[in-house]
Write a structure and sequence with these properties.
The protein has about 625 residues and is mainly β. It folds into four domains: about 220 residues, Jelly Rolls (Sandwich); about 110 residues, Sandwich (Jelly Rolls), CATH 2.60.120; about 110 residues, Jelly Rolls; about 160 residues, Jelly Rolls. Helix content is about 0%, strand content about 50%. It contains one helix and 53 strands. The strands form eleven sheets. Strands 1, 2, 3, 4, 27, 28, 41, 42, 47, 48, 49 and 53 form a twelve-stranded antiparallel sheet that branches. β5 and β6 form a beta hairpin. The longest helix is centred in the last third of the chain and has 8 residues. The relative contact order is 0.12.
Length: about 625
């Protein structure tokens, strides 16, 4: 037995797909060259849609703004009457600090080291407040300047910027105004620097809050929240995720510095957003608010995507299958935002489609599904498109009540589409057509379509005769393109027997795909090969052995090549024999057997294999009929 891969034993190493050489129980790693050149998704073992090659490391430090420095206050819980300087009526007893309301400008104060312009988290607890008088209140001063504090009983948090480093005391807490009677009692005072490692640079208007960075709108031009240095590799793709609240203006994410600025979509409403940005050799990350921006941002992550990582997909197999797809483009501009421009409703009876964003957990594992409520019988949500005049496919993830029916698909108007019965779980609906239509519809149009409430996620429109894996598009008007998967160049002359052997695969082609594609053992040419070639005629396979460009061929037509089939081609000087799903289906005598086989690859010339492969094995001996029957039995 020579090179083998698959059958649930997958190993991925960045841009390589590892197989192994099995020889008398000894295992040797073999590698296929793999390339794609773009990001791509797959369905993982847990059933969730994931991005292939997405690196776990967040390149942004302190993206949730939760990092705090060490405690600066000593004895902030007043366990002892020490470490605090007191003026006026302030006293410490019973683990509290108390001031009576019979004098003004009285303070409890402590000195420690602070840095001007740095932000500090200041927390305190009001135990009791019975102060009376004109303007009696609690305030803070010293190195933090003058800040009014809360007088309400309970815990409180302030984010204060140091502005007077040369003050006599770093922190002064006092009673101001004219307090004539009563008292105030405080406890649990804490001061810690926010972002103590200085990862973030705050532009005009920006400050830190509780797990967020906030902008108050005081800027007179665009303002930045920036982290540098970050090394972004030129040409690599980065997934950027952030959550923002927007009260005014707009906010966008950027890769900045050195190379040309790479800018994400300008956001004008609150939400959690994802961007896929391709680096131009940048050195910093920015969140940019415009002149009018007021709001906050949190939970920022930036992760590199290794674009040439193979995908082992579990969408239809517990074993997993190597997914090899053609280039395709998702032409829906906002594939996860059904409130975005382009989506519209139509009704013949006065109804509408109520759309609720970020409703529940989607197939991505995040809370970013959209709930659609159809308020009447004849209502549709539709998306008008242009640019497809031939083969077209649409797909969408839907979850609804089991047994209910919706329609999804193309049409010249909103009443068209194919009926789909929901199963109560997330399911991917696919609609294929040769389309001159201009409308993609999700509809409850007609009495037989009775789903009044569904969840949706990940809609896709492609100029292909079948739907491919999900391609997220978060605002690119011309569509987002996933490039083709290419897997080849495994093994060497010592791994193959040019005199006899077996090429075995378990896999499936894509339905309605009439491109040529192949899996071949060769000598790095098309003149000397043993292989399996799927033709441009539906369900047709050519099993071939070719020596000096003279071929012996076996032709076989599958019932359905889009189902998983087990195929074995045996070759030797006497015969070329084909087994499919436990049956011998072809035999040719005295075939043209090549010499000097050195290479196994998922292509012939430019005809890359397109489909899903569970397993490939190359045997260096011609197995018996009984062995091949057992090997290929479904």
């Amino acid at each position: 037995m020579a090179v083998k891969l698959g059958n649930g034993k997958w190993a991925i190493k960045e841009d390589k797909l590892l197989a192994y050489n099995d020889n008398s129980g000894r295992f040797f790693n073999k590698e296929f060259d793999f390339s794609r050149g773009s990001s791509a998704t797959y369905v993982a073992k847990d059933g969730l849609i994931k991005t292939a090659g997405l690196q776990a490391t967040n390149l942004v430090n302190n993206g949730d703004f939760s990092e705090l420095g060490s405690e600066l206050v000593t004895n902030g819980d007043f366990d002892t009457d020490s470490d605090w300087n007191k003026t006026g009526t302030w006293s410490v007893e019973s683990n509290y600090a108390t001031a009576s309301g019979n004098s003004t400008s009285q303070y409890i104060q402590q000195d420690f080291t602070i840095t001007n312009s740095k932000v500090y988290k200041f927390t305190y607890e009001i135990i009791e407040n019975t102060l009376n008088g004109n303007g009696a209140s609690l305030s803070s001063s010293g190195g933090f300047g003058s800040v009014s504090l809360s007088n309400v009983v309970g815990y409180h948090t302030e984010y204060i910027t140091a502005s007077n480093q040369s003050a006599t005391y770093a922190l002064k807490i006092g009673v101001s105004g004219t307090a004539t009677s009563g008292q105030i009692t405080i406890d649990n005072i804490s001061v810690k620097q926010v972002d103590p490692n200085d990862y973030w640079t705050l532009g005009t208007g920006w400050s830190f809050g509780d797990g967020v960075a906030t902008c108050d709108g005081s800027q007179t031009s665009g303002t930045f929240l920036q982290q540098t240095p970050i090394t972004f590799t030129n040409g690599n793709t980065y997934k950027v995720v952030f959550t923002c609240t927007i009260q005014a203006g707009n906010l966008d994410a950027r890769l900045q510095g050195s190379g040309a600025t790479v800018t994400g979509t300008s956001r004008t409403s609150s939400g959690t957003y994802t961007e896929y940005l391709v680096s131009t050799g940048n050195t910093s990350f920015r969140m940019r608010g415009n002149d009018d921006f007021i709001g906050s941002v949190s939970n920022i992550s930036v992760q590199e995507i290794q674009t040439d990582t193979p995908r082992i997909d579990f969408s239809d197999s517990v074993k997993g299958a190597l997914l090899l797809e053609p280039q395709s483009t998702n032409l829906i501009q906002y594939s996860e935002d059904f409130n975005a421009a382009g989506w519209n409703t139509f009704s013949a009876d006065g109804g509408t489609v109520i759309r609720t964003s970020n409703y529940s957990i989607s197939p991505s594992g995040e809370q970013n599904s959209t709930k659609l409520n159809f308020t009447s019988e004849y209502v549709s949500l539709f998306y008008n498109f242009t640019g497809i005049s031939g083969d077209a496919s649409a797909s969408i993830y839907v979850k609804g009540v089991a047994g209910e029916v919706i329609a999804f698909g193309f049409g010249p108007d909103v009443s068209f589409g194919q009926d789909f019965t929901l199963n109560g779980q997330w399911q991917r609906l696919e609609f294929n057509a040769t389309s001159t239509n201009t409308s993609l519809n999700i509809t409850a149009w007609g009495s037989t379509r009775n789903a009044t409430e569904i969840e949706v996620y990940g809609v896709q429109l492609e100029a292909l005769p079948y739907a491919t894996s999900y391609i997220p598009n978060h605002g690119v008007s011309g569509g987002v393109t996933r490039l083709a998967d290419v897997c080849n160049n495994s093994g060497s002359a010592q791994d193959f027997n040019s005199e006899e052997g077996v090429l075995y695969m378990e896999g499936a082609r894509f339905k309605n795909d009439f491109n040529y594609c192949a899996i071949m053992i060769n000598d790095n040419s098309i003149n000397n090969v043993v292989g399996l070639k799927f033709r441009n005629i539906e369900n047709l396979l050519v099993a071939t052995s070719r020596n000096n460009n003279v071929s012996t061929d076996i032709f076989y037509t599958f019932t359905d090549v889009s189902l998983y089939n087990k195929i074995a081609l045996r070759y030797n000087s006497n015969s070329l024999t084909l087994f499919v799903n436990g049956q011998q289906v072809g035999n040719e005598s005295n075939p043209n057997i090549p010499s000097n086989l050195t290479n196994l690859e998922f292509k012939e010339a430019n005809e890359n294999f397109l489909g899903k492969v569970r397993e490939v094995q190359v045997f260096t001996e011609a197995l018996t009929d009984e062995q091949l029957e057992k090997l290929t039995t479904i």
